[in-house]
Design a protein that fits this description.
alpha/beta; Rossmann fold; 3 domains; six-stranded parallel beta sheet; 15 helices; 11 strands; elongated
C-alpha cells in the first residue's frame, strides 16, 4: 500500500479509502487508484482477511458502527403497528445486536428529506449501510433518493426492487404457494383455491399465484379453480366474493387475509366443517390458524447479514448484479383445516 501511495503521490490513508471503495473519495480518484493498484499487482491477502473475520467473530459484540432502518411504508408507524413489518424489524435488530451494530430509523416518505439531506445525516451519524423495509405498494423507490442508493450499500426486504435494482432478502413466495397447495392435498382437500389481492401478487411478480398454478397441474382440470383477486372490491361488496365462492366451490382457501374467515361465514359456511382456510402468512397473534410461517424475522436477519457483508467488502452503490437471499417457509398446524381424506 505504501508503494501505491508513493507512485500516486497520495497518503496511505487515501489509498486505503480507495481500495475500500469508500464514497468519501470522488469516484474518479477511487477508480484511478484502484486501477493503479491492479497494475502494480496488489491483491487482498485472503489469509489476513480470514484471520480478521475470526477476530471479529470472537470479540465481545460492542457497537462498531450504525445501520439505517429505512421505513418505506406509507405508514410512519409501520415498524410498530403494521401486521407484518415489525417481524422484519425484530430480525434486523436481533442480528444487528449480535454483530455489534446499532440501528437508526428513518421514514422514506418524510417530506423534509431527499437524497442529499439523508446522505448528510447518515454520514454525520457514522451510518455505513441501509436496510429498506415495508415496501407494500410497489417495488420502485423514490427518485429523489437516487443519490443515496448510489452512495451507500443498500438491501431491501420482502420484495425484489426493480428501480433501482438492489440486492434483497425475502421469503420465497413461489415455494410458499406451492407448499401450501401441496399441504392442502396432503390433508385430503381436492379443490384448493387462492384468494389474494392482485396488487400483492403483482408486487412479488406473480410468485404466489405461480406456485399455486404449478401445484394445480397435478389435479384434474375440473378441480383447477380460478383465483379470486378482487380483495379491495369485495371489502365494499361481499357479493363479488359470494358469487365466486358459489361458482368455484373450493373446499379450502389459501389466503393472506384473516377477514376471509368472516366472509365465508357470512356466506353460511363453517370453518373447518364446510371449508378449510390456510393462512399464507401465519402470525403468532392468530395461533388458531393453520398456515405457512414465512419466517420474516429470519428475512430481517438475512438482510442484516447481507448489508454487513457489503460493508466489509467495501461495496456501495447500485450493484451490476443484485443478489437475492430467499428464506424457506414452514407449515404450522391449526384449527382452520380438517383432515378430509
Amino acid at each position: 500500500m505504501s508503494d501505491i501511495a508513493r507512485r500516486a503521490g497520495v497518503s496511505k490513508n487515501t489509498v486505503s479509502l480507495a481500495l475500500r471503495n469508500d464514497p468519501q473519495l470522488p469516484e474518479p480518484t477511487r477508480r484511478r487508484l484502484q486501477q493503479l493498484a491492479k497494475s502494480m499487482g496488489y491483491q487482498k491477502n485472503p489469509t489476513v482477511a480470514h484471520l480478521m473475520a475470526q477476530l471479529r467473530a470472537n470479540q465481545r459484540p460492542g457497537f462498531k458502527a450504525c445501520l439505517a432502518l429505512l421505513n418505506a411504508n406509507l405508514d410512519p408507524k409501520a415498524f410498530t403497528q403494521h401486521p407484518t413489518v415489525p417481524t422484519y424489524v425484530s430480525g434486523c435488530r436481533r442480528r444487528a445486536a449480535q454483530l455489534g451494530y446499532s440501528l437508526d430509523e428513518f421514514w422514506l416518505h418524510d417530506e423534509s428529506l431527499d437524497g442529499e439531506k439523508l446522505n448528510k445525516i447518515l454520514r454525520s451519524r457514522g451510518i455505513r449501510g441501509i436496510i429498506v423495509l415495508g415496501l407494500m405498494k410497489g417495488n420502485r423507490l423514490p427518485e429523489r433518493f437516487r443519490s443515496t442508493w448510489e452512495q451507500f450499500p443498500c438491501v431491501v426486504t420482502g420484495v425484489r426492487p426493480v428501480d433501482p435494482a438492489l440486492s434483497f432478502a425475502s421469503s420465497d413466495q413461489y415455494t410458499l404457494g406451492l407448499h401450501a397447495f401441496e399441504k392442502a392435498l396432503e390433508l385430503g382437500y381436492r379443490r384448493p383455491a387462492l384468494v389474494l389481492d392482485v396488487v400483492i401478487d403483482e408486487l412479488v411478480e406473480g410468485r404466489f399465484s405461480a406456485g399455486v398454478l404449478i401445484a394445480q397441474q397435478r389435479l384434474p382440470a375440473s378441480c383447477r379453480l380460478k383465483p379470486f383477486y378482487q380483495i379491495q372490491e369485495a371489502r365494499q361488496d361481499l357479493a363479488l366474493f359470494r358469487r365466486w365462492l358459489e361458482r368455484e366451490k373450493p373446499d379450502v382457501i389459501l389466503t393472506l387475509y384473516n377477514e376471509v374467515r368472516k366472509w365465508v361465514e357470512a356466506c353460511g359456511l363453517k370453518v373447518p366443517r364446510d371449508i378449510g382456510l390456510i393462512q399464507l402468512e401465519w402470525r403468532q397473534d392468530r395461533p388458531e390458524w393453520a398456515g405457512m410461517n414465512q419466517h420474516n424475522d429470519i428475512v430481517g436477519e438475512a438482510a442484516t447479514e447481507m448489508i454487513v457483508s457489503m460493508i466489509h467488502n467495501n461495496e456501495c452503490g447500485v450493484p451490476a448484479f443484485p443478489r437475492a437471499t430467499l428464506v424457506e417457509n414452514s407449515w404450522v398446524a391449526g384449527r382452520t383445516v380438517a383432515v378430509t381424506s
